[in-house]
Amino acid sequence: MAGRRARTGRGWDASPPRTGDATTPRPRRGRRAEGVDPEATPPRDEAEVAREICLRQLAVRPRTRAELAGALARRGISEEVAAQVLDRYDEVGIVDDAAFARAWVSSRHAGRGLARRALANELRQRGVDGEVASEALGELDEETEAETARALVERKLRATRGEPDAVFRRLVGMLARKGYPPGVAIRAVKEALAAQSAEAAEFAEHIDADALADAEQELDRDTRTLD
After folding, report:
1. Mean pLDDT for the stretch of residues 20-26
2. Are 142 and 208 a contacting pair, CB within 8 Å?
3. Structure-model confidence comparison of residues 159 and 16, the more confident one
4. pLDDT single digits (tens) 77-118
5. Calpha distance 143→73 (Å, rounded)
6. pTM of the predicted structure, to 2 decimals
7. Which element (helix H / strand E) includes 107?
8. Cα-based angle 183, 185, 187 (whole degrees, multiple of 5)
C-alpha cells in the first residue's frame, strides 16, 4: 500500500538484531586488555585458608585443638595464623577440648567398652590436656566400669569354648586390652564363670592366689601396650 513504509527497527518495537548482523559487536579474540591477565588469581588470605581447613576437618568429626593445629601445620599454615584462628574458635566454642573429652569418654565406653586407662591413652594421643582428660574420666565411676566389664565377659563367654582355665585367661586378657585393672578383670571373669556351669563354677571357686598372681602378670604385659 502506497504511503506505508516498513518499520526500520529503530523504535520501541524494534526486533533484536540477528546473530551476525553488522550491528552486533563481536568479541575480539587473541587480544588481551592491556596489563590484565585473565588467568591470574589474587592470592588467598592465609587465615581464610586456615579456617577452611579447620571446617573440613570438623565436618568429619569433632576435633581437639591439637588435632586441628596438626592439620594446619601439615598444610603449611604458619604457627601465628594457626594460633589466631584456633583462639577465635576457642572463644566461640567451635573447639572445646573439655566437651570433646567428655563426649569421647561416654561414646567409647558405651560403644567399645573401654575402661578409663585405655580412654586416657586415647585422649592423650589426641592432644587433650592431662587435667582436662582427668575431669572427663572422673565422670566414669568404678561401679559403672565394673558393670561394663561384667557385661563384656558375659557376652564374650557365650561364644567362647575351651577348658575353664584357658577361658579364664582369655577373658582376663580381653579386659586387659580394653584397659581394665587386674582386680576388676579377674572379679568379672570369676563371677561369669561361676554362673556358667558346674564345672566352671568349681574352677572359679578354687582360683588361688598363685593363679591370680599369674593372671595379673599377664595383664601387666597386655596393658603395657596401651601406654
Report:
1. 49
2. no
3. 159
4. 999 999 999 999 999 999 999 999 999 999 999 999 999 999
5. 42
6. 0.70
7. helix 97-112
8. 65
- Residues with Cβ within 8 Å of 201's Cβ and at least 6 positions away in sequence, in order, are 193, 194, 195
Q: Find the angle CA(131)-CA(152)-CA(163) to the nearest 5 degrees.
A: 130
Give the pLDDT of residue 95.
Answer: 94
Quickly count: other Cβ atoms within 10 Å of residue 107's Cβ: 11
Which residue is listed with cell 587435667?
131
For 187-195, the CB contacts below 8 A with 24+ separation are 187/146, 188/146, 188/149, 188/150, 188/152, 188/153, 189/153, 191/150, 191/153, 192/150, 192/153, 192/154, 192/157, 193/157, 193/164, 193/167, 193/168
Helix (H, G, I), strand (E, B) or coil at 158: coil
pLDDT of residue 147: 94
Within 13 Å of residue 146, how many CA atoms lie on the same side as its CB?
Answer: 10
Residue 58 has pLDDT above 90, yes or no: yes
